[in-house]
Design goal:
208 residues; mainly beta; five-stranded antiparallel β-sheet; four-stranded antiparallel β-sheet; globular
């Protein structure tokens, strides 16, 4: 059995922040001040779509204090309050034994105050130490919004734990679509008219 995927148009808005979703460069990704002494941020060649991936490692030696840290994307502007947007992250966690690994997804107002208090999304520990997984979450832009950024990171009680991140996507949809680094045009499936009897025909298909 087989099938054909016909997918609608979309744009990944991550590129508008000046960061590279493929991590061929870490330009635009920044560490909060607390992270400078707590983690190492590096690139490696284990990529899903070409380029590199971000490898974020807890190396601070702290296995008792529940301290959170991460790496920030640039800020996304120009989103519409009341509209649903979906973030998708491809990730892999290695060396995990305890604590949490999460994606922060922060909405800010014009003073950089975070508008959504429940903005941290813990990645399911059932996927840790088992290779690559995909996680997505849909949010509606709150009133008073003036910017949004992401922070993949972890609870720094995970000495030596590694979080690999690749192909982060953020799109103006209430669901996740397949990854595109920029804009994808609307798909179209077209058959030549010559294969159809112009006076009598039936088209039947499964649509999901």
């Amino acid at each position: 059995n087989g099938g054909v995927l016909i997918e609608e148009a979309t744009t990944s808005l991550i590129a508008s922040t000046g960061v590279d979703a493929f991590f061929s460069s870490t330009t635009g990704w920044t560490s909060p001040s607390a992270a400078v002494a707590s983690v190492s941020i590096e690139q490696n060649n284990e990529s899903l779509y070409g380029g590199s991936v971000l490898c974020y490692t807890d190396v601070d030696g702290n296995v008792t204090t529940n301290t959170w840290d991460g790496i920030n994307s640039g800020t996304i502007y120009g989103l519409t309050p009341g509209v649903a947007y979906t973030m998708t992250i491809r990730y892999k966690v290695e060396g995990w034994t305890q604590g949490s690994v999460a994606v922060w997804s922060h909405w800010q107002d014009s003073t950089a105050t975070i508008l959504n208090s429940s903005s941290d999304y813990g990645l399911p520990s059932s996927t840790f130490n088992k290779g690559w997984s995909v996680y997505s979450v849909t949010q509606t832009v709150p009133a008073g919004y003036d910017g949004k950024f992401f922070r993949p990171g972890m609870d720094l009680t995970n000495l030596g734990c590694k979080l690999y991140v690749d192909a982060i996507q953020f799109e103006a949809k209430a669901f996740s679509t397949s990854f595109v680094n920029g804009t994808r045009s609307r798909s179209k499936l077209q058959y030549p008219v010559s294969i159809i009897n112009p006076t009598q025909y039936t088209i039947s298909c499964w649509v999901n």
